[in-house]
């Protein structure tokens, strides 16, 4: 068990040194593939890269962290991949406080829910930006790239 923890720590360190954070998604108790990108502060944050594997018909939940009151919002940059469908139960960009209580300026989660409708690779890019700055050529404060391999229904 200790060796497994050391290997995980070494992999995290190697990814950080390479300029990105690479992690795999985890399954929730309901079988939903959950991919989290926690809120972080600072300048020049490296792109966050996440991946996972799921089957046709399963749900994907991408939870993106930010800090409230800053004007920044997570958006899906580009179209939804052809093999994924936004879930109507989870409107795109539903924002909820992180933790048990909403603290002004505290961390929040923006959740994007999707269902895999066909097999293949789905690439999603999310950007954390201020909507009014997008037209001025301002780069996003943060980006997250999620790649999911969708396999045939099991």
Q: What key phrases describe this protein's structure?
A:
154 residues; mainly beta; Immunoglobulin-like; 5-stranded mixed β-sheet; disordered N terminus
Write the layout of secondary structure elements.
Layout: H1 2-17, E1 21-24, E2 26-27, E3 33-37, E4 48-55, E5 59-67, E6 73-76, E7 84-86, E8 94-97, E9 107-116, E10 120-129, E11 142-151
Parallel strand pairs: 1-4, 3-5, 4-11
Antiparallel strand pairs: 2-3, 5-9, 6-10, 7-9, 8-9, 10-11
Structure summary:
With 154 residues, the protein is mainly beta. It is built from one helix and eleven strands.
- The run of helices and strands is HEEEEEEEEEEE
- What's the overall average pLDDT, rounded? 77
Structural class: mainly beta
Percent helix: 10-25%
CATH domain class name? Mainly Beta
Main sheet: strands, sense, barrel: 6 strands, mixed
Number of strands: 11
Q: Could you tell me the CATH topology label.
A: Immunoglobulin-like
Query: Unreliable runs, pLDDT <50, ≥5 residues?
Result: 1-23
Strand content: 35-45%
């Amino acid at each position: 068990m200790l060796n497994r923890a050391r290997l995980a720590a070494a992999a995290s360190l190697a990814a950080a040194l390479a300029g990105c954070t690479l992690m795999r998604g985890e399954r929730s108790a309901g079988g939903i593939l959950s991919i989290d990108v926690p809120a972080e502060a600072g300048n020049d944050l490296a792109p966050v890269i996440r991946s996972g594997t799921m089957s046709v018909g399963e749900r994907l939940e991408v939870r993106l962290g930010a800090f409230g009151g800053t004007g920044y919002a997570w958006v899906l940059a580009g179209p939804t991949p052809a093999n994924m469908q936004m879930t109507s139960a989870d409107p795109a960009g539903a924002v909820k406080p992180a933790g048990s209580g909403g603290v002004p300026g505290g961390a929040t989660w923006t959740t994007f829910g999707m269902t895999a409708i066909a097999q293949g690779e789905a690439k999603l890019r999310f950007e954390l930006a201020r909507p009014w700055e997008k037209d001025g050529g301002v780069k996003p404060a943060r980006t997250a790239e999620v790649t999911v391999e969708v396999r045939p229904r099991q």
